[in-house]
Design brief:
Layout: H1 2-34
């Protein structure tokens, strides 16, 4: 059970990181289009 919770937390962390980098790239692209 402990390992399952840790696995979910680790997976969630990866998803958040991936989404964060994607969001940053999108923001940079939007800024480039605006300027």
């Amino acid at each position: 059970m402990k390992y399952g919770i840790a696995g979910i937390g680790y997976f969630f962390l990866i998803v958040v990181k991936q989404f964060g980098t994607f969001y940053e790239k999108r923001t940079v692209m939007m800024n480039k289009l605006k300027s």
